[in-house]
C-alpha cells in the first residue's frame, strides 16, 4: 500500500531503505511531499528549527586573571543536504539535547582558548571581537556536524569579586559621574536661566498688558465722557444758535422800529418844528415890514396890504408842507434848508408884488 508524506516547513523528511541519487544513505525531502512505499521504506524527520545553547566558563586571561564568561549560542541544522545528512547521523535520536550539549562543549573550548590570548582590558573594550573570534574558530567543527551558528552573544564578564574590572571602570565611572554632575549643573543653570527668562517675559507681558488695558480704559473713559457731554453740548450749541437768531431778529426789529420812528415821529416833529420856526420868522418879518411901512409915508397903504397878506401866504405854504410826504436826506438841516427856501420864495413873491404895486401907483400918479 502506497502512502504520501509531507514534511513541515521547518523539517527535513528522511526516507531510508531505497538509497538516493546523490549516494547519500537516505533520501532528503524538504519543502514538498513524496510517495513512500510502506514496509520497504522508512520515514524520519529532522528539525530545521533554531536551537539555543548557553555556556558559562571560568577562563584565565593573558594576565592570569580568572574571568567568568557567560555566552549564548543560537544555532540550527544547515539547509543543504550534506549538512542534514551529517546532523541526522549524529542527532536524530535525541536531536535537541545532543546538539545543545555538543555545541556548548565546542564553544566552551574555543572561548577558553581565545580569552587566554587577550587581556582583561581587551575583553572589556572589545567584547564583539571576542565573540567573532570564537565564531570563526568554531565554524569548521560546527560545519562538520551539520550545524550552522546564527549568533554568539557574550552576556556577562565577571572577575569573581577580585575588583579588577571595578578598578578599570573606576576612572570611567568617575568621569561619567563628573560629566553627569557637570551636565546636571549645566542643565540646572539652563533651567534657572530659562525660568528667569520666562519670569522676565511674563513680567514684560504683564506690563504690556497693563499698559494696553490702561490705554483701552482711557479711550473708553474718553468716549464715555464725550458721549455724556454730547447731549448738553448739542443743547448748548442749539441754544446759542437760537439766541443768535433771536438777537439778529431783535436787531432787525430795532432797525425797523428806528426807521418807523424816523418816519412817524422824528420826521413829523422836525417838520412841525421847522414850520413853527418859519411862522416865527414870518411873524418877525411881518413886524419888520410893518415897522418899515410905518416909517414910509408914501407906501403905508401898500405895505399894510402886503403885510396883511404875508401870513396867509406863509400859512398856506406851511400847511402844504405839513401834509406832504417829505423825504429828508440831511435830517433837521435838510428840513431847515427846504423851509428857508420856501420863505425865500415867499419873500421873493412879496418883493415882486411890492414892486408891481409900486409901479402901478407911480403910473396912476403920473
Topology:
Elements: E1 3-5, E2 11-16, E3 27-29, E4 34-36, E5 42-47, E6 51-60, E7 66-77, H1 81-91, H2 95-115, H3 120-125, H4 127-144, E8 147-158, H5 164-295, H6 300-322, H7 331-365
Antiparallel strand pairs: 1-4, 2-3, 2-5, 6-7, 7-8
Helix pairs in contact: 1-2, 2-4, 5-6, 5-7, 6-7
Description:
The chain has 366 residues and is of the alpha+beta class. Helix content is 67%, strand content 15%. A hairpin with a 5-residue loop joins β6 and β7. α2 crosses α4 and α6 packs antiparallel against α7. The longest helix has 132 residues. The model has no long low-confidence stretch (mean pLDDT 80).
Write the element-wise H/E pattern from the N-terminal end onward: EEEEEEEHHHHEHHH
Strand content: 15-25%
Measured on Cα atoms, how large is the radius of gyration? 78 Å
Classify the secondary structure makeup into a structural class.
alpha+beta
Short description:
The protein is an alpha+beta fold. The chain is built from seven helices and eight strands.
Structure characteristics:
366 residues; alpha+beta; three-stranded antiparallel sheet; 7 helices; 15% strand
Amino acid at each position: 500500500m502506497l502512502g504520501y508524506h509531507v514534511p513541515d516547513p521547518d523539517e527535513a523528511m528522511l526516507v531510508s531503505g531505497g538509497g538516493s541519487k546523490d549516494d547519500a544513505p537516505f533520501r532528503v525531502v524538504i519543502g514538498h511531499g513524496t510517495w513512500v512505499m510502506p514496509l520497504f521504506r522508512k520515514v524520519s524527520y529532522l528539525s530545521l528549527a533554531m536551537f539555543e545553547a548557553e555556556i558559562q566558563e571560568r577562563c584565565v586571561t593573558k594576565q592570569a586573571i580568572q574571568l567568568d564568561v557567560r555566552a549564548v549560542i543560537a544555532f540550527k541544522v544547515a539547509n543543504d543536504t550534506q549538512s542534514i545528512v551529517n546532523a541526522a547521523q549524529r542527532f536524530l535520536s535525541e536531536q535537541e539535547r545532543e546538539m545543545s550539549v555538543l555545541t556548548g562543549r565546542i564553544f566552551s573550548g574555543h572561548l577558553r582558548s581565545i580569552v587566554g590570548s587577550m587581556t582583561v582590558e581587551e575583553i572589556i573594550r572589545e567584547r564583539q571581537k571576542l565573540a567573532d573570534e570564537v565564531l570563526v574558530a568554531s565554524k569548521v567543527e560546527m560545519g562538520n556536524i551539520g550545524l550552522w551558528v546564527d549568533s554568539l552573544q557574550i552576556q556577562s564578564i565577571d572577575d569573581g569579586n577580585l575588583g579588577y574590572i571595578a578598578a578599570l571602570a573606576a576612572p570611567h565611572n568617575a568621569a561619567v559621574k563628573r560629566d553627569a554632575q557637570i551636565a546636571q549643573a549645566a542643565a540646572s543653570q539652563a533651567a534657572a536661566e530659562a525660568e528667569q527668562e520666562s519670569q522676565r517675559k511674563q513680567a514684560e507681558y504683564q506690563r504690556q498688558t497693563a499698559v494696553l488695558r490702561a490705554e483701552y480704559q482711557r479711550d473708553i473713559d474718553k468716549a464715555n465722557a464725550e458721549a455724556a457731554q454730547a447731549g448738553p453740548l448739542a443743547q448748548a450749541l442749539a441754544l446759542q444758535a437760537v439766541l443768535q437768531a433771536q438777537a439778529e431778529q431783535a436787531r432787525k426789529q430795532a432797525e425797523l422800529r428806528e426807521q418807523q420812528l424816523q418816519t412817524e415821529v422824528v420826521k413829523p416833529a422836525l417838520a412841525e418844528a421847522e414850520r413853527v420856526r418859519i411862522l416865527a420868522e414870518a411873524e418877525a418879518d411881518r413886524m419888520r415890514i410893518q415897522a418899515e411901512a410905518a416909517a414910509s409915508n408914501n407906501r403905508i397903504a401898500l405895505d399894510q396890504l402886503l403885510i396883511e397878506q404875508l401870513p396867509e401866504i406863509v400859512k398856506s405854504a406851511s400847511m402844504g408842507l405839513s401834509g406832504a410826504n417829505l423825504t429828508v436826506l440831511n435830517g433837521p438841516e435838510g428840513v431847515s434848508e427846504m423851509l428857508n427856501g420856501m420863505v425865500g420864495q415867499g419873500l421873493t413873491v412879496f418883493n415882486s408884488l411890492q414892486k408891481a404895486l409900486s409901479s402901478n401907483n407911480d403910473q396912476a400918479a403920473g
